[in-house]
Amino acid sequence: MNTLHQPVLLVLGALLILLAWRRWAPVSYWYALVFPRKAIWLRWSWRHVASGCSLTKKRHRWWFTTVPGLVASTGVVRVRRRFQRVAVDTKPWMGLPRPIRYGFRLTFHLLDGQVPDDYAKVCERLAHAWRVEAVRVVGSRPGRVTLQGVTVDPLAQTTPAVPPPEPREGWRADDLLRPIVGVLETGAAWRMDFRLIPHWMNAGATQSGKSNLINALLVALAPQPIALIGFDLKGGVELAAYDPRLTALATTRAECVSLLADLIAVMGARMLACRRYNVRDIWQLPDDVRPIPAVVLVDELAELYLTADKSEKDEVTRTATALLRIAQLGRAFGIHLVLSGQRIGSDLGPGVTALRAQVGGRVCHRVNDPETAVMTLGDLDPDALVAARSIAPELPGVAVITDSDGRWYRARSGYVSTTTAEQAACAYANITPSWSQLAASGLGHELPATDPTPELAA
Ligand SMILES: Nc1ncnc2c1ncn2[C@@H]1O[C@H](COP(=O)(O)OP(=O)(O)OP(=O)(O)O)[C@@H](O)[C@H]1O
Ligand SMILES: [Mg+2]
Q1: Do both 80 and 123 map to the same domain?
Q2: Residues 241 and 264: beta-carbon distance below 8 Å
Q3: Which of 158, 212, 394, 419 should be mutated for ligand 1, with most atoms under 8 A from CB?
Q4: Are residues 142 and 70 in the same domain?
Q5: Which of 72, 373, 422, 429 has its CA 20 to 30 A from that of 366?
Q6: Distance CA 363, CA 386 (A)
Q7: Residues measured by CB to lie within 5 Å of ligand 2, the ion
Q8: Backbone φ/ψ region at 32: left (φ over 0), alpha (ψ -120 to 50), beta
Q9: Given pLDDT bands bounded at 50, 70 and 90, which one contains residue 452?
Q10: Could you identify the atom of ligand 1 that is nearest to the CA of residue 204?
Q11: CATH code at position 126
């Protein structure tokens, strides 16, 4: 072989190896080759980036400066050297970048007067400056803030939902109603913590992943000793399949009105029980008398508010009032709402705005119009609205959510097919409390309760 060709062949071979490495083992490629380069560049460019993102502060320092003097008659510029107080840009101190899977974490020392929110506000700008997919605040402690940058969108891949392992010694009260339903873009688990945020709004255009989130919730909550209640005014097509694990299901407007009235009655009985024990909510009651918590799943909220004629107006008003009462008082008495719908705005009728104000948990899937994102995410950061508006249709299940730490995140629900959710509903059918058990629990005596959905009992 010609000796001239040897180096060319070597370079080509090395390139091929690198390409194959990147293609077949991207994680080790990131750790070994890309991350070290990125880390050096992050530190080297930090002064410019911090100044560009307005994270620097002006500070006065004594500086040895050269001051141009007067032009002498000879035409020679005389310079004077002296110490002077000058304003200089001070950048926040940056810790060593730490690698994570497809990304990095960085801790910064906050300058005087800065708060972690100042960094959260410029995440979008930092992502562009650092040439990464997304940057988020992932932690903070006094005087420090930790940011995470990711080089590929961790939500681009569908992740199957992992059903929670059933605890061997029964459920502790603290573990109830804290289901994991997907992943956050930070790679952490997305936990819908009903104990911290009692009611959730699940909004999104058609085919954006609302029902999938309900499926994920059902699979995660089915093993817990709680009641699940369904409202499905799409004639039951969405929730009827989960009948075995539902304590009650309403599929017509009349059923909805009567089921909501029954739930209000249950709530009233629980209020009395709490008063009798002199406690403020059911979680302070002793374990053996604590009423069964209930999660109410509503699919297509708009259907509950739409009126075709005047005769339905009264039913809609009663429905709206009952939902509002549950949203206001349900947390203390263990009744939680998950309201799904394509639009959850004041255009649906009076009462929706008040209901929205009581629902702290927000999940905003892909939406068709900016108003829906504004209605759902409301007073969150404007960046959250931008993130919600830019969810691609080919990523169903991706949503902008509020998390227990009060921040917003992009997240994706775990994929749960209707068949999987049906199987979970059947597998845990034996622990489904009946309506009379739900109504009587916590009262210390059995109620002569009638089942509100006779077809279910049958
Ligand atoms: N997290 C996810 N991962 C992968 N695929 C998903 C995910 N969520 C939803 N999908 C897919 O997107 C499609 C639409 O989802 P889904 O039925 O939940 O939408 P929807 O918002 O309830 O729509 P509609 O308003 O029409 O009821 C489904 O076929 C489902 O397979
Ligand atoms: Mg649906």
Answers
A1: no
A2: no
A3: 212
A4: no
A5: 422
A6: 14
A7: 210-211
A8: alpha
A9: very low
A10: 21
A11: 3.30.980.40
